[in-house]
Amino acid sequence: MQCTVKLFAYFRNNRFKQQVMDVAEGTTVEMIIDSLGLPRDEVGVTMINSRHCELNQRLAEGNQLAIFPVIGGG
């Protein structure tokens, strides 16, 4: 199945901004994060189709997954 993955901020460094990916049935948000080599402790917000989601949530055909890093500063 195909899903669109969007990366934000420094997660785009040496990666991509947006990419359509072929993933297996049952693929979770966490599996995508791991496959991209993103440090889990730096992932701040994940969203599927503009709605907050959990890392163990499974993706479905045509989903759009957005992955944002933790934002720091002050």
Describe this structure in words.
This protein is 9% helix and 34% strand. The chain contains one helix and five strands. The protein has one helix spanning 29-35; strands spanning 2-7, 18-22, 43-48, 51-52, 64-69. It has a five-stranded mixed β-sheet, with no helix packed on it. The mean pLDDT is 95.
Largest sheet: 5 strands, mixed
Q: Which spans of ≥5 residues are poorly predicted at pLDDT below 50? A: none
End-to-end gap: 41 Å
Q: What percentage of residues falls in helices of 4 or more residues?
A: under 10%
Strand order of the largest sheet: 2-1-5-3-4
- The fraction of residues in strands falls at 25-35%
| Structural class by helix and strand composition | mainly beta
- What general outline do the C-alpha atoms trace? globular
Oligomer: single chain
Mean pLDDT: 95
What is the number of E strands?
A: 5
Q: In sequence order, what are the helices and strands, one letter per element?
A: EEHEEE
Please name the defining characteristics of this protein:
74 residues, mainly beta, five-stranded mixed β-sheet
Brief summary of the model shown:
With 74 residues, this protein is mostly beta strands. It has one helix and five strands, in the order E-E-H-E-E-E.
